[in-house]
Specification:
Length: 106
């Protein structure tokens, strides 16, 4: 799914593969890491898998790091788990995404 996301956009985190603590948070997109790429930022490396990875910023985000999860102002998010928040656009969420936002089992 191409959403035409770009650095500086605001987005809603609607899902996650491992770090579920950030679901429902609004974030700003910082940098896209291409598939299988790696980028070093202030507190560690961000490594992307096949779909690539957006580095996002927000307050008290949780991210995986060597040794466990850490609280940071940066986190990585797979593109399919981001919904743009632009102007009059309202993110279209499916039932599973809505359940995750409210921590309700589907």
């Amino acid at each position: 799914m191409t959403q035409n996301l770009k650095a500086g956009d605001l987005a809603l985190i609607t899902g996650a593969f491992s770090v579920t603590e950030n679901i429902g948070r609004s974030v700003e997109l910082v940098e896209f890491v291409p598939p299988f790429g790696s980028v070093f930022r202030q507190d560690g490396y961000f490594d992307a898998d096949a779909p690539g990875l957006w580095i996002v910023t927000g307050e008290d985000l949780v991210r995986n790091a060597e040794g466990g999860k850490v609280i940071s102002n940066l986190a990585g998010c797979d593109p399919q788990h981001l919904r743009p928040l632009r102007g009059d656009e309202v993110p279209k969420l499916d039932a599973e995404e809505i359940c995750h936002l409210f921590k309700v089992p589907a």
